[in-house]
Amino acid sequence: MGFAKYAAIFRLGLLEAMTYKFDVIFSSFGSLVYVFVFIYLWSAIYRVYSLPGFTLVEVLWYFLMVQTIRYAAGKPVEEITRLVQTGDIVNFVNKPFSLIAYQFFQSLGKVIVSLFSILLLGTVLLWVYLGPPKLSFVFLPLVLIAALAGITINFLINYAIATLAFWIEDATPFYWIYDKIVLVLGGILFPLELLPGLFQKIALSLPTAYYLYKPAKLFVHFSIQSFFDVITIQGAFIVVLLSLCSLMMYLGVRSMSINGG
Amino acid sequence: MGYGSFLWAYAKLHIKSAAAYKFNFLFQALFMMLNNFFFLLFWYFIFQKIDTLNGWGMSHLMLLFAAGALSFGFLSFFLGNWRSIHKIVSEGELDFYLALPKDELLHALVSRSSFYGVGDMAFGIIVYLIFTGLSFPTFLSFLIYCFFGAIVWSSILVIVQSLAFVFGKIEGIYRMADTISFAATTYPYSIFPAGLRVFFFVIFPAFFISNIPVILLQGFSWKWFLLLLGVTIITASLAWFLFRVGLKRYESGNLLTVRV
């Protein structure tokens, strides 16, 4: 049965996302608020300073892709932490599937619906403000593959953080720190070209750069070589993080005690 | 028990709860301060490349963030349910407050506290002191402006969350309003065009949360102070009124809630 069960889980998640598609689409508008703000913020910055390697138009399309990936990715840590804290996780540990894979494929449907709706609405927004896009959308499917790989990296990091709840009850503060690392060193607030020398080197070596910055930069500066470089390193991070999550789940479940009542 | 005693009793309860769970409290507060520090790094890196942003220097942006953090922290610690009213309404948890003698909105707002709010408040005050100095009258003014800003912020979100009485689950609408209020609080008004400034000053007065306190700190003017006071009173009154109107539509879900 192998992968078929996860395909079924994904299908159910997709159907659920499509059932509540207006809720997903409406939430997508919220994700575009910061794109809207960045249009004005970076227009003001570009009056006095130009980011190396980016025109103003490219930087704004970069931010659209960053916000698209970020909001589509959601906050998996919340659901996973809830399962651990409430003890509902016991309903899953005796099932014949990997909980990590179950959570991932269940959320993938909503991720895909969000990805397309935010990108579509954001393209309309930037089209209105900047005119027709000068980017080529021919390679968009490849960029979306890199985006999904980035979302997978984020999911696994969220999962690893959430499993800390097995030991410390509330892992939320660790998630805050991760979220802020992504904010500054992951490329949400600015492309990593803005960072000075050593900071930039550190940021580019972290998995967070391959979650948002690299896929978003691929969107504005695409090349086949860059795509393969990015996807290879994303694959390596996914393998390492998946191993880490599996180990933490194993150790966590072993140490788990359930509060009865 | 008057409302003053009622609010003070809840404030004492939250402080005692923080003292009882010391490790958890310090952990959350310190991590929130660290969390906020990363936001400041953004402006630090930007101002390594530019001197001013539409007339605002780095110190102004830092004060903007400090004002926002202080207001947010105050609300999170003392009015901990300020961002949860829509869930309380849509999930039938309002029943608990209906049976009690105090105003339902106020009771719902103060009945929860988040420890990380102290981290935000401490962060706001530290950043203020670093960039403004130790003048007591100015510091007192800062606290007053931020208090008004906090009331405006919570009132705006209560107005939006009152839509839960009509539409039930309004997570999408609420998140958009929440995001918009954060955006207007953490970025200077000077980057926005005239049309959006009118929106954020008149229709969705989020600029009064932190932008106006910073303007007042740069140079006091009665015009801006009275506007801040006026907007505080109007938004708070409107929030309370709309909540009462919505409450008339509320139907109990017979949900059994346990308060421990």
Structure, explained:
The complex is a heterodimer of chains A (about 260) and B (about 260). With about 260 residues, chain A is mostly helical. Chain A contains 13 helices and no strands. Chain A has helices at about 5-20, 20-30, 35-45, 55-75, 75-85, 90-95, 100-130, 140-160, 165-170, 170-185, 195-205, 215-220, 225-255. In chain A, helix 2 (about 20-30) packs across helix 7, helix 8 packs antiparallel against helix 12 (about 215-220) and helix 8 (about 140-160) packs parallel to helix 13. The radius of gyration of chain A is 19 Å and the shape is globular. With about 260 residues, chain B is mainly alpha-helical. In chain B, helix 2 packs across helix 7, helix 3 packs across helix 8 (about 135-160) and helix 8 (about 135-160) runs parallel beside helix 13. The radius of gyration of chain B is 19 Å and the shape is globular. Chain B starts with a helix and ends in an 11-residue tail after the last helix. The chains are: A mainly alpha (about 260), B mainly alpha (about 260).
List the helices and strands and how they pair.
The complex is a heterodimer of chains A (261) and B (260).
Chain A: H1 4-19, H2 21-31, H3 33-46, H4 56-73, H5 76-86, H6 90-93, H7 99-130, H8 140-162, H9 165-168, H10 172-185, H11 197-205, H12 213-220, H13 224-255
Helix pairs in contact in A: 1-7, 2-7, 3-4, 4-7, 4-8, 4-12, 5-8, 8-12, 8-13
Chain B: H1 3-20, H2 22-46, H3 58-78, H4 85-90, H5 95-98, H6 104-110, H7 116-132, H8 136-161, H9 164-167, H10 171-186, H11 194-203, H12 211-218, H13 222-249
Helix pairs in contact in B: 2-3, 2-7, 3-7, 3-8, 3-12, 8-10, 8-12, 8-13
